[in-house]
Amino acid sequence: MSESELYPAIIGAYSKGDTRLFRINSGLAWQGTVIDHSPERLILAHPRPVRLAAEGMSDIIGWSAGALFTAIECKSKYGRVTDAQQCFLNIVKACGGRAGIARSVEDAGLILRAD
Question: Residue 90 falls within a domain, yes or no?
């Protein structure tokens, strides 16, 4: 399963009851006044960069049973975790939250049930 297929599958399976999960987009986007746009091109006046998430932040965050902060890093079968992503997961765990790498919907369930 690809990472883009995994996000909605995990959120759909587990974001209910006392668990709420949200997809977090990362990267850099641009904001400004739209001057012109087409399917191939966007022209902005007064452009400003917008950072969408902190470096290394997990793909899915939220809370699980007991209001524990939860971070799930989704990876395909052969996807690699970056140092920044592993650092974020380690910090969440060190602070008492639930965090881990999910390569399947079942992996996410194990993270959510971890104590």
Answer: yes
| pTM of this structure | 0.85
The one-letter code for the residue type at 15 is S
Chain segment 58-108, per-residue pLDDT in tens: 999 999 888 899 999 999 999 999 999 999 999 999 999 999 999 999 999
Is the dihedral angle over the CA atoms 53, 112, 68, 65 positive or is it negative? Answer: positive
Would you say 82 and 54 are in contact if contact means Cβ atoms under 8 Å apart?
Answer: no
Residue partners of 46: CB distance under 8 A and separation at least 6: 32, 33
SS3 of residue 89 by DSSP: helix
Domain with 77, as residue range(s), is: 3-26+54-113
User: Domain containing 94 — which CATH number?
Assistant: 3.40.1350.10
Q: How far is CA 113 from the centre of its chain?
A: 19
- Written as one string, the DSSP assignment of 16-51 is STT-EEEE---SEEEEEEEEEE-SS-EEEEEEEEEE
How many domains does one find in the chain? 1
